[in-house]
Design brief:
heterodimer, A: about 240 residues, alpha/beta, Rossmann fold, 2 domains, B: about 325 residues, mainly alpha, two-stranded antiparallel sheet, 14 helices, about 0% strand, globular
Chain lengths: ~240, ~325
Amino acid sequence: MEPLVRLDNVAVEFRGLPVLRGVTTAIASGCITALIGLNGSGKTTLLRTILGEVPHAGRISFRGGARPVTGYVPQRLVIDSRMPLTVRDVFALALQRRPIFLGVSPAALAKTRELLARVFRREVEAILDRPVDKLSGGELQRVLLALALEPAPQLLLLDEPAAGIDFHDQDHFYDLICRFNRELGIAVVLVSHDTHMVTRHADRVLCLKDGRIQCEGHPGEVLSEKGLAAVFGDKAAFHHHH
Amino acid sequence: MWIEGLRTIIERIAASLPEGFWLQAPFAIRALVMAILVAIACGSVGGLVVGSRMAFFSDALAHCAFAGVTLGMLLSLAGNDPERDQWMVPLVMVVFGIIVGVAIAFVRENTSLASDTVIGVFFAFAVGFGGMLLSTLRRSTFLDPEKFLFGSILFVTETDILVLSLMLVFLAGVLAWSYNFIVFSSFSPSLARSRGIKVRLLNFLFIALLALIVNLCLRAVGALLINAMLVVPAATAANLGRSARGMFWWTMLAALSASIGGLWISSTVSIPVGRGDPIQLGPSGTIVVLSVVMFFCSLTMRILRDRRAPAAAT
């Protein structure tokens, strides 16, 4: 099957400094691709370039020509707003045209409940009126994942989705991603530092070093000691056990 | 025609009120209507200003009006038509305010300078430019410097009311379309962009809207106090509201209560001093002081609420 996204010789510069150099790869539907590499290797930039946020050289093409519907879960979202926003508010802002000061529409509320039920087991009603800046890391990531599921995405981009959340929540979060990937055939691209999680859940790994693809392939091959040493150098041991 | 109609209505209302009532004169009714309109305009965007951390930015826009009005006066002095000043000076102020606002956003976006540094530089330019040409303001029949700084709500005309009413209709339309997008962008710009929201465009639109509101409300409240009307009621609401909707309506309620209450206090209360006439309170100053008092009350309520229910607050 033709890949959903194809990158040909993609390069990005920030203020004259190269961040991505000649990245050529393809992303297939129904596959979980993990981007790994050291800090500053270009993982987040690559994700944001696919998202269409970063001006780039080279070519990014999509199956069928049009950009696929894309869900995005940002890295440890810094909530900068001083407005008291509840979970219900955030979904209403994204789902309804009615201005939020006129209240949440019944249709948006029903959709919110449905989306939250896909990522929370029971506590949907309890989470609805919680302020978003008071959610735990794991809860916030699940809320953002639920938000990314509407409109139904063909491509799901996650930037270190499990950073800063505890192990139990991480595991649950990755299980959810795998479930959506399997059930909906979504192409998933996620940035991760955690090779243990990548080995368990990813179908394919893309290793970046200094803005270039160092290696790519099945986690079993790429995340061998030799492969890790090529990407992480003397930090490989740390990442392998992290 | 509309202005005449409005004047007649105001005069009839004034005439129908009992002797000695604070709204018995047409100028007092005009002031009340203006105070309500200013409260609605500032209240409707106050939450967005506070939510997007733009308090310093809106303050800079208010001070830029100093340069705008000076420029307007300078241009109007080139001609010799006081009638023309009535629309020319506000128009130059609004356009100048929008240009400065957009320029601040542009410089901020395209340099690595800190946001408050960029705003501070434009702020300095505006005040410097206005100060340099202060003598043009002194020649003005349209606006004297004191009224510019502290407002002259008791001297507003039916035209001012009509212009602000039209602006409110425009504001309602823009907010109906963009309010959710602006709030979502302030929550997380990258998430907003990923959902196809034109964050940059909305940012410029909001800045232009803010410049329009600041410049059109300035006549009533003054350049030094307009920012208080934008920020303080919303800060009060942030203490009381528990959702985006709650914050909007608390802001509106705080702005309207402060405006109407402040105007009433300044119209009815005078402070006797030893010699001479009792001191009359300035209306816009009283409105702002009342607004700040409300803020501290709300802050106390919030602290008490958080202490009572630490689990809910954390």
